[in-house]
Design a protein that fits this description.
alpha+beta; 4-stranded antiparallel β-sheet; 66% helix
Length: 495
């Protein structure tokens, strides 16, 4: 017996060794292949190419259709819906088919003992063949599992709604970012040629001033002061130009163009945006109803309530009625096929002891969600106040920037006229032209901030920056028209 145990132990050693697995890191060659495949799939084969310049609403449409972050949210919704469908199947009865074949190495014969006399039968007999097979088909339905699955299915439905609210939040933020990057890109395309020409002119003037100062043809003090002022203005212009150049790359990423791809944006007129006449208190109430974050936490609170109901349901016994069809290959049976019906009742006694802890966990979860809801409510109210105040201030600042840019433009034109007849010098002309360009850049930058604040105000209130019925699967033209229509209707603002 000890020898047999040792043999079995030695026999099991290879099996135990086979259960272990080695650690295999990804090689650089594999990583290169994976990276190449991902890079190839960054731009979908069916992505519509840009035809001409890109307008604001087309950029929004392309972001909704092609942006990779939005694809994540779409996949999240699809996964949640699939999970809901799978969870719903758990409420169906179980239907299990099984088949078994066995063979003995000896005859399954046996003796019998008379219960009255205690005498053993003289001859052995058997009621089972040496080779046996049996097939079963069992239909069963656990009432307790049905109740729990019903609650789980409701929770899966809430998870779908949560995923939809997360997508809504992502798209609103995406449209905000597109609006900001687009107007900065507009400023870049509008002024880039003028900036480059003026930069060359200023560089020549700077070199001339240094030559005159070094050659003793002008006062060293006046020459250095002039160079300092010239460098200060050029540096400020370059800083603004740098931010505007980055905006083209940001916009390209948002609408999912290939990195480094050259494109131009449409130059629209800068229109005055409307003022907000609706009281802040009404905007806050709208936000309480519409904000995706508040809706999301409300659905999570629903799920917590369902967890509490499920915990109470688990205290009930499991009742499982069943019916089984059996087919046996045993030729010694009188009936080789028969039906079995019955009900199994079971009770998990551990649930009685675990129930208080489960209830405590659910209550703690509910308290956490309630605290989150209150914190979000306060944050949303604050965001609405800040968004409205920021938009109102930027409206005033943008109006001043527009007036300043207009005055600077007129001064530049007047000085250019005087310079052409020799009344003023080149230095004054360059300074005023630089100042006019800077005023234009500041105006564009402020206008881009105003456009962002306008979209942010709608997002803070929870109103979609895009038609809610859009899925992102529509064509760019259809998406662009729908987005255009909703923003045209908003031309009156939050009145």
């Amino acid at each position: 017996m000890r020898f047999s145990g040792k043999v079995l132990s030695i026999g099991f050693l290879p099996l135990l060794a086979a259960c272990d697995t080695s650690i295999t890191p990804i090689t650089n060659a594999e990583l290169s292949t994976i990276a190449a495949d991902r890079e190839l799939r960054l731009i979908a084969d069916d992505q519509e190419p840009i035809d001409g310049t890109v307008g604001l609403h087309e950029a929004m449409a392309r972001a909704i259709k092609y942006n990779l972050d939005h694809r994540i949210e779409q996949s999240n919704i699809a996964l949640a819906k699939s999970t809901k469908q799978v969870t719903a199947l758990d409420m169906l009865p179980g239907l299990v088919a099984s088949s078994e074949f066995s063979r003995r190495d000896s005859e399954p014969g046996s003796f019998s003992v008379n219960s009255t006399t205690g005498l053993t039968s003289a001859n052995a007999s058997r009621s089972t063949e040496q080779d046996t097979s049996e097939t079963n088909l069992t239909l069963s339905w656990d009432i307790l599992d049905y109740g729990l699955s019903y609650y789980r299915s409701q929770q899966s439905g809430n998870d779908v709604l949560i995923a939809m609210e997360q997508r809504r939040s992502t798209v609103n933020r995406l449209v905000e970012n597109v609006r900001t990057a687009y107007w900065r890109a507009v400023s870049h395309d509008r002024l880039s040629h003028r900036i480059s020409a003026l930069e060359r002119k200023a560089s020549r003037e700077l070199a001339n001033s240094r030559s005159l100062t070094n050659g003793g043809f002008s006062s060293p003090k006046e020459g250095l002061i002039y160079q300092r002022d010239l460098l200060r203005v050029i540096g400020e212009m370059k800083a603004l130009q740098r931010d505007l150049k980055v905006s083209k790359h940001q916009l390209a990423a948002l609408i999912n163009l290939e990195p480094g791809q050259s494109f131009r944006v449409r130059i629209p007129p800068r229109k005055t945006l409307p003022s907000v006449q609706k009281p802040t208190s009404e905007l806050v109430q709208l936000a309480y109803v519409n904000r995706p974050e508040l809706r999301e936490v409300t659905y999570e609170q629903r799920n917590a309530e369902l967890d509490q109901k499920a915990a109470a349901l688990e205290l009930l016994p499991s009742i499982r009625p069943y019916i089984t069809g059996n087919v046996s290959g045993n030729d010694l049976l009188v009936d080789q096929s028969w039906l079995t019906a019955g009900t199994r009742v079971s009770y998990d006694l551990i649930n009685v002891f675990a129930h208080p802890r489960k209830v405590a966990r659910v209550r703690n979860q509910q308290a956490l969600l309630d605290a989150r809801a209150l914190a979000l409510t306060h944050a949303v109210a604050t965001q609405v106040h800040v968004a409205k105040e920021r938009y109102s201030n930027l409206r005033s600042e943008t109006r001043i920037s527009a007036q300043y840019a207009d005055v600077s433009r007129k001064i530049t034109q007047a000085i250019a006229t005087e310079s052409s007849v020799g009344v003023t010098g080149t230095q004054e002309e360059i300074f005023e032209e630089l100042g006019a360009i800077l005023a234009e850049l500041r105006f564009d930058s402020r206008y881009a901030e105003l456009q962002t604040a306008y979209a942010s105000l709608f997002a803070a209130v929870g109103m979609n920056n895009y038609p809610a019925d859009l899925t992102g699967q529509e064509s760019v033209d259809v998406l662009e028209k729908a987005i255009h229509d909703i923003w045209v209707k908003r031309g009156e603002g939050l009145h």
